[in-house]
Design a protein that fits this description.
By secondary structure, the protein is of the alpha+beta class. The protein contains 24 helices and 31 strands.
Length: 744
């Protein structure tokens, strides 16, 4: 038998070998297809990672402007300085570089004002990127890059990035908000509009050789960053400043433990002109605790977990926008809602009378009027002016739960306002099915349901703007880097809650409150203003019933409102707590500052002209008789001392003075000017204070919402301290307060 392979064996062997070859070829083809086509992107990325160095170009964040294009937030180009330790080692070993490691680290430490040991530790790492310092300004970055270039050190990198600046520091801090360390918005508008503001980052790709060195510029490819869009706000820094100044005065005087907040808004469009919470914080240094009492307390604490928690709590408070993120019992300001609802449903009429009785019992629960005396029978006008709780309980009873809850929802208290800011809180309220007679009674005067300040002012705006519930809006428009409008925000009217007729009646009622109870309201001579104060007990937080929130909401002009504002003082500590005491004076302060700015000017009656202050004209060097004529023409009295023909010295020579004040004209250059000692005026009525100053030859300039109110008393804050010796004729300005509280 032959041991040679047969033909069939050869064919089988050839078949097996051929099959194996085919399998190998198919596999190789598959691998080639997979590498070159299916997984091409993956291998290209791996190759690029070895051959290309990628640098991110951070997009410039959009600017935030106020309504007059004043900058509130802006990004500037800065640089991050970093080092590639692996490449640095190669640079130092090359013949082109003559420096030692210590030369590099020492120079960088000096330039960056850092510890050299810290830089050295980063320069000997095994990885390819070590960050040295962020937010380096361009001049310094250029110096560092020139140093690296001159010494052939490609391992030192200056990467362009962006830093946020807030030119107005703490102004509108809780509205504007600030950024996370990683560059995205976490509070305020910076967070709400982050998608528009952030833009799109760019990238630079640089080819490198096998040693990691950059190949010449021809191999560099850049993809430009797309800058973010900018915001143009309805906020006006002049109005914002006026609001913040008033709130600062409020917290310094009354020390509210829960802070104070305020909103100024256009009642017709919902445009937010100003919004603040005090104390706020510096947007350029958000970690600084700005409440001096809290800062001192934390500073005194030993290092440890308790101190860390206290800091975190302080930051959370000062960064929070109280106007939209905290809820409170609105108190008597809410009575405008109850009254307008009852008027709209024709359950009451403006001249209908409501009793007081001091105590009103509902289902065995006694409800007290804030007043200790009976207001008697009152129309709606007087009920609102007296802020009589029993009167409004009766109005609530006429509405019954179904209608009360219908209007409560209609005015927007059961839903977010939709304001374009993050973290808007939801109100807490009693639903119709759970509203018994007691709940209805307490709800009718604002002592059961808890709302946000933005909900309260938005609802109040609907009461006086014709009945329309508008959406409050902080941003007016969004523009791109070329100034083109990306998005324009038109006023949003959700619905009409009450009729134009009812709204007009409510404006009359609220103007009546201010005109007939000047003390404790935002009365300003020459202006038509409507308003209502509120005082509520924080019964869910303090069972003793001695913790209060005082608030005041006002609008002007009363017949055709163009501006509305709300101030809320949360838990005042210095003895006063009624809204007419702790909020109304500061609402007046804001209105006095912003009404002329908004183009709303006073129109005086003859009676008001007798009371208002005049600007003193300086008549020095004028003929005596001419000077006398000029000063008497504006309502001032004149006393001439000396025998000269012209005025040498005038006291006072400038400023404001009450009509009827006396100006002294000296006509001889060697005349000795007479002096007087300023007396204490605290606790005196206007008439008493004026008389006491007149006795010593001084003039009084009353200020404050109760300045011309019968029985008002002077506070301790007179412009010239008691005991000071001044020239006769000098003006002493004194703030007057209501001697008795006429409303909450």
């Amino acid at each position: 038998m032959s041991d040679k392979p047969t033909s069939s064996m050869k064919r089988r062997l050839n078949g097996v070998i051929g099959a194996c070859i085919i399998v190998v070829i198919v596999y190789l083809l598959y691998v080639m297809v997979r590498i070159s086509i299916i997984d091409a992107e993956k291998w290209q990325e791996l190759a690029s990672s070895q051959q290309l160095k990628s640098t991110t170009i951070t997009a410039s964040r959009g600017t935030i402007y106020d309504s007059n294009m004043q900058i509130l937030a802006q990004s500037a180009t800065v640089y991050t300085i970093a080092v590639d330790p692996v490449l640095l080692a190669r640079n130092l070993e090359s013949d082109e570089c003559t420096l030692e490691l210590s030369d590099v680290t020492g120079t960088l430490a000096e330039m960056l004002e850092m510890d050299e040991n810290e830089i050295t530790a980063k320069c000997v790492k095994d990885n390819r990127y070590q960050e040295l310092k962020k937010n380096v300004e361009k001049p310094l970055a250029d110096k560092i890059r020139q140093f690296a270039k001159d010494n052939k050190i490609s391992a030192v990198i200056a990467t362009e990035s962006s830093k946020r600046f807030y030119p107005e520091n703490s102004l509108a801090a809780s509205v504007v908000g600030h950024l996370h360390y990683d560059g995205y918005g976490i509070y305020g508008l910076e967070a709400y509009y982050d998608e528009y503001l952030s833009g799109t980052d760019g990238k630079t790709l640089i080819a490198t050789d096998n040693q990691g060195n950059e190949i010449p510029y021809d191999y560099k490819q850049s993809y430009d960053a797309q800058p973010g869009d900018s915001l143009v706000l309805n906020l006006d820094i002049t109005i914002q400043s006026a609001l913040e100044n008033a709130l600062l005065d409020c917290v310094q005087t009354h020390a509210p433990s829960g802070r104070a907040t305020g909103i100024v808004m256009n009642p017709k469009t919902g445009a937010v002109y100003a919004m603040a919470s005090t104390y706020g914080y510096d947007l350029n240094n958000p970690a600084e605790i700005t409440d001096p009492a809290i800062a001192a307390m934390i500073e005194a604490m030993p290092e440890g977990e308790d101190k860390t928690k206290a800091k975190s709590a302080a930051w959370a408070t000062q960064w929070k926008n109280k106007a939209i993120s905290e809820i409170y019992f609105p108190g008597s300001v809410f009575k405008v809602i109850t009254a307008s609802s009852a008027l709209e449903e024709q359950k009451i009429t403006p001249n209908q009378h409501f009793g007081c009785g001091i105590v009103y019992t509902v289902a065995d629960t006694d409800f007290h009027c804030w007043s200790t005396y009976d207001h008697g029978a009152q129309t709606l006008y007087d009920s609102m002016m007296n802020s009589c709780n029993p009167a409004f309980i009766r109005m609530g009873e006429l509405l019954e739960p179904a209608l009360f809850c219908k209007y409560y929802a209609g005015y927007g208290f059961t839903e977010p306002t939709g304001i374009d800011l993050p973290s808007e809180a939801s109100s807490l309220y009693v639903s119709e099915k759970n509203m018994g007679p007691v709940e209805l009674a307490s709800s009718s005067f604002g002592q059961t349901n808890k709302v946000t300040a933005i909900e309260m002012i938005t609802a109040y705006a609907a009461v006086i703007n014709g009945g329309y519930l508008v959406t409050p809006q902080v941003v007016d428009k969004i523009i791109d880097s070329n100034g083109n409008v990306v998005k324009d925000f038109e006023p949003v009217i959700k619905r009409q809650v009450i009729s134009e007729e009812t709204s007009a009646q409510m404006r009359e009622v609220l103007e009546y409150v201010v005109e007939n109870a000047k003390g404790g309201n935002s009365y300003i001579s020459g202006y038509r203003i409507g308003g209502k104060s509120g005082t509520s007990q924080k019964i869910d937080e303090d069972i003793t019933g001695h913790t209060y929130v005082g608030s005041y909401c006002a609008f002007a002009p009363a017949d055709d409102p163009e501006v509305i504002l709300l101030i809320v003082t949360d838990d005042p500590q210095n003895g006063k707590f009624y809204g007419s005491e702790v909020a109304a004076p500061y609402a007046t302060q804001v209105l006095e500052a912003i009404l002329p700015y908004l183009g709303i000017y006073p129109e005086y009656t003859e009676e008001e002209l007798e009371e208002i202050a005049v600007n003193i004209k300086n008549t020095e060097f004028a003929d005596v008789e001419d000077a006398r004529a000029i000063l008497t023409a504006i309502g001032l009295k004149v006393t001439v001392i000396g025998e000269g023909d012209s005025v040498v010295t005038q006291v006072p020579s400038s400023g404001s003075a009450k009509r009827g004040s006396t100006v002294i004209l000296y006509t001889e250059s060697n005349a000795v000017q007479e002096t007087a000692t300023v007396p204490s005026l605290a606790g005196l009525t206007l008439e008493q204070a004026q008389s006491k100053l007149a006795e010593v030859g001084l003039n009084l300039l009353p200020s404050g919402s109760a300045a011309y109110t019968d029985g008002a008393t002077a506070g301790y804050d007179q412009s010239i301290s008691a005991g000071t010796v001044v020239l006769k004729g000098s003006i002493v300005s004194v703030t007057f307060y209501p001697s008795t509280v006429t409303s909450q």
